[in-house]
Amino acid sequence: SGVTEVLAHRSDSLRDKFIEVPCSEDYDSHKRFEGCTPRKCGRGVTDAVITREEAERIRRIAERGLSLGGSDGGASILDLHSGALSLGKHFVNLYRYFGDKIQDIFTEEDFALYRDVRHRIQQRIAQVFGISSSSMYLTKPTFFSRMNSTEAKTTHDEYWHPHVDKVTYGSFDYTSLLYLSDYTEDFGGGRFVFMDADSNKTVEPRAGRVSFFTSGSENLHRVEKVHWGTRYAITISFTCNPEHGIGDPVLG
Fold first, then answer.
1. TM segments (predicted)?
2. Could you confirm whether 231 is annotated as catalytic?
3. What predicted TM-score, i.e. pTM, was given to this entire model?
């Protein structure tokens, strides 16, 4: 249709913006968990949960971790939970690869901040969707991403294709993104796009902004290619199924 609406401009400071959309049938093909599995679906944006200063501190964690590796293509990831780190055209396990040296890269404070931020995002999602925060579990993959304009070398670098999180990762019920850099200041392109039947709705990243949504086909989305600069974000995902839950990352 070619119609594009901006849900959240970089210059906006949004306390809470939420748009309800009808739930897809994706959740019916998975076990339902009463009081958690989405009955109300939609997407929200808030600039009031994480401060810009906290986002900068978190970005430094990402920069330090990713400086140890990095993909040959335009997209690199760092997963503090599993230890997965992009290196060339592959991934290595950060914890195995660097061993005890990991203590020189990250501090206990880094991991405490990461946990605290994750916890606040989880509480906000629970509040908006009217579910209990304790019925949600962190799930994998939950990871930092760094994107730049280098052309893709492998399929892992091709992040711009439309996709549905619940279809890609069956465990996802709620997806959130915490942006760690600013659209038009730090990078060009790289907006987040919800692809609805009648129009595209974009979120312009800004440091500290949290975008969150139910993970089914009601929220088909993609990320625009980054044209210049570097875009940092964390994807933090939640499941209603305790069997798919993961713990917070632990140092050492």
1. none
2. yes
3. 0.96
